[in-house]
Amino acid sequence: MQSIKLGCILLLGSAMILAGAPAADSWHPTPIFHATTPAGYEVVLVRPSGATISVLGLIECPELEGAQQVAAGVNASIVNVDGQTLKHFPSNFSFRITATLRKTVLVDPSDTLNIRERPEALLLKLKFRLKAYHGLDVLEITPESVQMIGVPADVPSDERVYRVNFNVERLPITGRCVLEVLSPDGERIAKVHFDLL
Questions:
Q1: Nearest Cα to 53, choosing from 127, 142, 115, 129?
Q2: Domain for residue 134, yes or no?
Q3: How far apart are CA 127 and CA 186, in angstroms?
Q4: How many angstroms separate the first and last alpha carbons of the chain?
């Protein structure tokens, strides 16, 4: 009988220790950054053509490979593979933007735009603008270069892929970047985000 009481006390004590322990997820390390990171997507309906355009973003930044967030909240910081704390965004990074008429993303359009251009022609003429936000400050950054990759422009296609390259200096790590995908007339079609903290 005494051994049963002792067993119950040990079992109860173990349960109390486990109840006060952090959740199992907190024992896992913070996810590591990679050289390529998904940056979201948007789907828009274009009138009068009735076409649906999906815009998908991917960030390419080799300098971030293996970097890790080591804290959260106001103490959040990012440490690179050499153990150095990053104070600024990497100075060179790219957005790879896929603009497609294919049913790649199966969600309803989030917006409707009035653009008279044929959808296939529109995909060939996209423009890009980066806005960098830090607190109340907004900085507009022109791409260093824009390349169409994948299917060449002179080959008919319902999908176009762009690499939009940026060179920025001393953009604080606590800021955030928003790439705007624009029509030839400057109307915003979609936006994708690049945040580190």
A1: 115
A2: yes
A3: 8
A4: 57
Cα angle value 60/126/166 (rounded, 5°) = 35
**What confidence tens digit (pLDDT) does each residue in 135-192 have?**
889 999 999 999 999 899 999 999 999 999 999 988 999 999 999 999 999 999 999 9
CA proximity to 48, closest of 118, 131, 106:
118
State the CB neighbour count (10 A cutoff) for residue 19: 7
Indicate whether this model's pTM tops 0.85.
Answer: no
Contacts of 45 (CB under 8 A, 6+ apart): 51, 52, 109, 111, 112, 113
Residue type, 105: V
Q: Is residue 178 part of a domain?
A: yes
Question: What pLDDT does residue 100 have?
Answer: 97
Distance of alpha carbon 144 from alpha carbon 83, whole angstroms: 29
What span, in angstroms and rounded, lies between the C-alpha atoms of 63 and 195? 15
Domain count, the chain: 1
**pLDDT recorded at residue 2:** 47
Tell me: pLDDT of 17 over 70.
no
